[in-house]
Amino acid sequence: MIATTTVTVLRGTGTDLCEDIYDLPAEAGTDGQTGIPASLIEGSRTITTPNNPTPRVVRYAVARIRPGTDVTEDDRLRDDRTGRIYEITAVTQPAALGFTPMLRLDLKLIN
Question: What is the model's pTM?
Answer without folding.
Answer: 0.76
